[in-house]
Amino acid sequence: MNPTYIHLAAPPFPYFLECGHTVYAPGDQHPNRSRMGKFDLILVEQGCLFIGEEDKEWAVTSGHALLLLPDRYHYSVKPCEEETSFTWVHFHTVSEWLEAEGEPVYASRDEHFRHFLTYPYTIRIPQLGPLPGPFARSGQAEQLLQLSLGRRSSAVWQQQRIFEEMLRMMDMAQQDAAGSQAAEIAEQTEAYLRNHYAEPLTNTALADALHFHYNYLARCMKRVYGLTPMEYLTDYRLDQAKLLLLKTEIPIAAIAERTGFESTAYFSRRFSTKVGISPLRFRKRYSR
Fold first, then answer.
1. What's residue 231's pLDDT?
2. Fewest CB within 10 A of the end CB: N or C in the chain?
């Protein structure tokens, strides 16, 4: 059975709500709850917590984390058999999130851009899994608890920063487990595309420059970014074209050339398909 992952689109990043620490004696059990409206991240430090969500049941042992979802029914499977302690962290997100097995699932780029004016990065967290070594040693859960005891005005910024670092560690651990080479190659490809987007790039030219077969580059990009190199290149060129349309009076033909499109007609066609209006209308819409 493939592990279940929770995929969170960002930015905006999930935001911290509250946290606490709980200790159960043998015979105690987690309360039943339905549709809390917020994520519940449980970090077990000692013992074993027996908990379920809808048709799933888990025994969450020391050194493991469980992420309960905001729109599900949670219940105790059975009482604790030994003293069990855990830290819980509640958080929420206004971006798209979903539950899936196996490979990463990517947020809708265009829909996300319409709402948040930027393309999404997908944070990938296992619903149940061991805490990454750096996370377990960092003491970040304890820092969150200590900050909760102080003034909110001084704690709120630090809590969000620590919480995001927790998510980053958990996300990066999944990338490493899934194959760090794929992530590294995808990032190298992305950097090359950003630095050379104005040039006439082809599949062959990209493969020669990065010393990998194009099909391998495409697999790595698809896995990490959800796009092939050429799909990413077109999106990036269009983003740069938008900036030039908004910030300069450069003619549209010159913008097409500067951003690497083979002709003005092709640029206008791709822009209209992606944005929904022509480059000229886009410029007029945002000009005074």
1. 92
2. C
Which residues, 6+ apart, have CB-to-CB distance to 247 below 8 Å? Answer: none
Class of domain 231-285: mainly alpha
Question: Which of 40, 74, 44, 39 is CA-nearest to residue 56?
Answer: 74
* Cα 14 off chain centre by: 9
> What confidence score (pLDDT) does residue 106 get?
64
- Token pair for 186: 């995808």
pLDDT by residue (tens digit) across 155-181?
899 999 999 999 988 888 866 555 567
CA angle 62, 47, 27 (to 5 degrees): 150
Q: Judge contact between 52 and 58, C-beta under 8 A.
A: yes
- By the 8 A CB rule, do 282 and 245 touch? yes
pLDDT at 175: 63
CATH superfamily of 4-177: Regulatory protein AraC (2.60.120.280)
244 SS3 class: helix
Q: What is the C-alpha to C-alpha distance for residues 77 and 86, in angstroms, rounded to an integer?
A: 17
Residues of the chain with CATH 2.60.120.280: 4-177
Which segments in the chain show pLDDT lower than 70?
1, 102-107, 134, 136, 174-180, 288
